[in-house]
């Protein structure tokens, strides 16, 4: 029973519409306006959540209207309204997806002297509005930013076969998309339900059929396109699939940009096995060397005393004059065993 509510806060979510008028009563959050003077306007709905197209530090009273070129479709938004400037959105997208300088091929998004319509992969209409972003297999990393969904004229977004991570932003529902391809990345989770209800994207909603697989095959499945296009490319189950949306193959080994750990290969046991093999090999080699030395010692015998006595010892006299620098040295005799 809502009439018994004493405290209610809806800020910080992605709720749209309005706070129901019957909830905007002085009894709800009654201490909220305690410090507000009697001659100041009080909108009791603002104590629950700031209205659409406004924002506040904590998402509740006092609420400030969005400035020109800014917008907010949600109740109780924290901080600032959303910047709708196309260049600002594209710049942020570039910064987030190229932190490791990973973009491949020609890249000119960092050139502030260019029009956004001249950026690599950008298509504009006759009024210079961005209507297409096509950056398939360009080495994009990082995450998909929410602001992409606030490009007011965007119809085509193709970011397939990159290394984008994170989750699919539900804010993509705000763009007037006709084509969306996010397959072949490392996106997790699910396609947001609000996006699944968006009509005309990849044929979604035709004949009343709304299907999340029109956007990306769910985790644990795959298709040749990474999404269901209404034809033969249906999303099929795959026991060995990677934990990502929009996979195009059931075999992780055919994907060059995934790591061994992502393929299910834990390198720890491999390193342990290699180390054990090296240690065992060295142990065998050391044992062989020690055994060989022992055999050599056992095979080498001293001459018996009888053999030594039978040898003829011949004196080898060396004159003092034969030794360099030994004029004052005593005569030295050296003995050697004769043959």
From TrEMBL:
Alphabetical UniProt keywords: Glycoprotein, Membrane, Signal, Transmembrane, Transmembrane helix
Transmembrane segment boundaries: 270-290
Gene3D superfamilies: Ribonuclease Inhibitor
SUPFAM superfamilies: L domain-like
Example of a GO cellular component annotation carried by this entry: membrane
InterPro entries: Leu-rich_rpt, LRR_dom_sf, RLP23-like
Keyword Membrane assigned: yes
Localization: Membrane
Superkingdom of the source species: Eukaryota
PANTHER family noted in UniProt: LRR RECEPTOR-LIKE KINASE (PTHR48063), RECEPTOR LIKE PROTEIN 30-LIKE (PTHR48063:SF112)
Protein name (record): Leucine-rich repeat-containing N-terminal plant-type domain-containing protein
Species name: Helicotheca tamesis
């Amino acid at each position: 029973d809502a009439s018994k509510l004493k405290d209610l806060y809806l800020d910080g979510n992605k709720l749209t519409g309005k706070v129901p008028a019957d909830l905007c009563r002085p009894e709800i959050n009654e201490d909220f306006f305690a410090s507000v003077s009697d001659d100041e306007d009080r909108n009791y709905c603002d104590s629950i959540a700031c209205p659409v197209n406004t924002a506040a530090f904590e998402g509740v009273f006092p609420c400030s209207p969005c400035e020109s070129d800014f917008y907010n479709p949600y109740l109780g938004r924290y901080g600032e309204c959303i910047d709708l400037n196309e260049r600002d959105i594209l710049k942020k997208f570039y910064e987030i997806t190229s932190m490791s300088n990973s973009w491949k091929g020609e890249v000119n998004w960092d050139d502030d002297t260019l029009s956004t319509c001249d950026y690599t992969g950008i298509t504009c209409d006759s009024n210079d509005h961005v209507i297409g972003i096509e950056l398939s297999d360009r080495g994009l990393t990082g995450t998909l930013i929410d602001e992409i969904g606030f490009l007011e004229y965007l119809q085509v977004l193709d970011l397939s076969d990159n290394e984008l991570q994170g989750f699919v932003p539900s804010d993509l529902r705000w763009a007037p998309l006709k084509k969306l391809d996010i397959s072949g990345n490392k996106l997790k989770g699910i396609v947001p339900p609000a996006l699944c209800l968006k009509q005309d994207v990849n044929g979604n909603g035709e004949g009343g059929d709304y299907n999340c697989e029109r956007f990306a095959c769910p985790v644990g499945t795959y298709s040749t396109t990474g999404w269901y296009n209404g034809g033969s490319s249906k999303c099929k189950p795959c026991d060995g699939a990677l934990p990502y949306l929009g996979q195009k193959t059931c075999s992780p080994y055919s994907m060059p940009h995934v790591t061994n750990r992502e393929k299910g290969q834990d390198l720890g046991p491999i390193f342990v096995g290699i180390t054990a093999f090296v240690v065992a090999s060295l142990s065998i080699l050391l044992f062989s060397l020690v055994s060989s030395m022992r055999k050599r010692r056992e095979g080498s015998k001293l001459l018996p005393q009888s053999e030594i006595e039978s040898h003829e010892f011949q004196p080898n006299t060396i004159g003092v004059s034969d030794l360099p620098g030994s004029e004052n040295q005593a005569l030295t005799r050296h003995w050697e065993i004769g043959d």
